[in-house]
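Continuing the series of single-chain predictions for the mutant panel. This is the parent chain; the variants come on the following pages.
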Amino acid sequence: MITTPITLDLLRGALELTPSDRGLVPHRLPGWARRQYDDPQLAGAESQPSGVRLVFRSRATVIELDVVATKRDYVGAPPRPDGVYDLVIDGTLTAQATAEAGDVMTVDLLAGTADVQRGEPTTVRFADLGSKDRTVELWLPHDETTELVALRTDAPISPVAPDGRRTWVHHGSSISHGSNAASPTGTWPALAAAQGEVKLVNLGFSGSALVQPFVARTIRDLPADLISVKLGINVVNTDALRLRTFIPAVNGFLDTIRDGHPTTPLLVISPILCPIHENTPGPTGWDLAALAEGRLAFTADGDPADVPAGKLTLTTIRAALATIVAQRATTDPNLHYLDGRDLYGDADTPAHPLPDDLHPDADSHRLMADRFAELAFTGKGPFAVPPQVR
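Parent structure:
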């Protein structure tokens, strides 16, 4: 077996690799941004490698990746499934595997504590792959912080040359991060990127899409042919802003992105349907009755009577975002708006209910991806390939 050093040029979707005492941690935010806000929620989310994959060409019939995965257990709830590693060969999902060992973070939601028990590295192995020279993508689990320890193959590997596909940078909340998706290639942004034949950089951060300036600066500085920002649900979840601060915050966020990408197609997406918060503001709380039954679910803990004073609901946020985009689009023809309910709306709840009252399930991720691909990448969609370059 040949051991190949893991370097950033073998990774897609990661912005940095930082050393740990056991390996390398892929990050989806640069170090300067991480230092601006020392928040455990954001730190955990950005180090979970949603959309991050090792990409190389090889004739290898065996691929081994040594990792330390961080598992999460919630006190009183059933164990979470292990994160999935997706092996994609020449664009086709070929095999899946899990890392059963690793660190374990035990979260007590009622006490507000999280304790980590240190584990050992484990090997994720794929074999009997055939000896044809091909492009290999090994997608890391979207929902487990993963330290990369060693990459081994039974044949040499080489970086993949640029293939002309456009780069799509997407920012959003846990839904974009991939909560409740079955595997890393099953998140709605990954599925939509495959249909649109684009390269994904997923900046979806669970619980952390709060219109932060450092995220806008990160997007500003990244190479991007297409940009989308899905804003709103986490602002309500955390009860972080009021209407009079949300509107200028969004405008400033878009201004910063435009500093680096003045004419790049930029799509603003409002929240998908979430019945508990359509007309009830945040914060979002844990459903203690569900937790007593061994389920994770959420409740809306705000008071609708506070909306006239500026507290935000998904209804008010959608109206604000639509107005912001309409006003700016008079001088920015490459700015577009998509109502998130066009991806998942009222008509979808009977067949695709939100299992925890907040996040779509795996089938709904595919539904959202299909609709996004149709609305954004085809016809006159904002991300469609211009006729002159087809």
